[in-house]
C-alpha cells in the first residue's frame, strides 16, 4: 500500500521509559496461541455489554493516550471511547492497567473487552486482534524556544536555517530529519522527551522533533518553549500518518463495526472531535483523513 504506510513512532522505538508519564512502546507483539474469543462471543458482545452496563477497557498508563489521574481514567482513548460506548448504550468504562506488551495478549485471554490506549495500527498487531478505523493520526511538530527566534515551521525551514535538530535516540524522527536533507552533524540524539525540552531551553539544540501530540503535552510543563503547527513528514515522497485506534478481540467484529459507526460520526465532525480531545493535545491536525482505512494499514 503506497499511500498510507504503517510506520509509527510509537511502533518503531525500542522499549524505554520516559519522563512525565510518556511511555515509548515496542513495535511488534508476539502472537498468542489462545484467541480468547469465538463466534458466539462476538455475536452478542454488544448486547452483553448493554445488559451489564459497562465495558472493560485496558490502558497502559501512557499520557496523553490513556492514563489514570486520581481515580479517573483520562486520555485520548478513554475520552473518545466513553463517548462512543454511551452512544451504544453502555454508560461506564471499567479500566484495567496493563503493561504495553500485555495489552493484546490480555485482550485475547478475555481479561477486558477493548484496548483503550491509542495503539498504533500495524500489520503485526492486526494479525492478532481487530482494530477500529483510525481514531487519530500523529503529525510531527517542532518544539522551539518561546517566540520561535529562528522562525522554524517545518523540516524544510529547519534545513534552510542550518539549525541543530534534536530527536529521540532510535526513533523514526531521525529518519524524517535525514530524509528532509538535514545534515547528520546537525541531528542530535536524546534519550527522553524531557531531555529534548531541556536541550531546547538550554540552547543545545534549536528545535526538538517529535509528534505534535507528545510535544504539546510536554510543553504544559515547559512554559519556556512553544510548539510549531504540526505537519506530515515524508519518507521517499510518502506522507507519514502514524495512525492509532481501538482494539477488539477477533470474533468481535459486530462490536467493532458498531464502534466504527459511532466513531465515524465523531471524526466527520471536526468541531466535536477537537472539543472532545483538545485537553489531551489533540486538534484538527490529528483528525484522520476519510481515505485512511484500517484494512489498508493492516496490509502494510
Automatic annotation (TrEMBL):
Residues 54-277 form the Solute-binding protein family 3/N-terminal domain. InterPro entries: Ectoine_EhuB, Solute-binding_3/MltF_N, TAT_signal, TAT_signal_bac_arc. PROSITE patterns: TAT (PS51318). Gene3D superfamilies: Periplasmic binding protein-like II (3.40.190.10). Pfam families: SBP_bac_3. Keywords: Signal. This is Ectoine/hydroxyectoine ABC transporter substrate-binding protein EhuB. It comes from Streptomyces poriferorum. The lineage of its organism: Bacteria, Bacillati, Actinomycetota, Actinomycetes, Kitasatosporales.
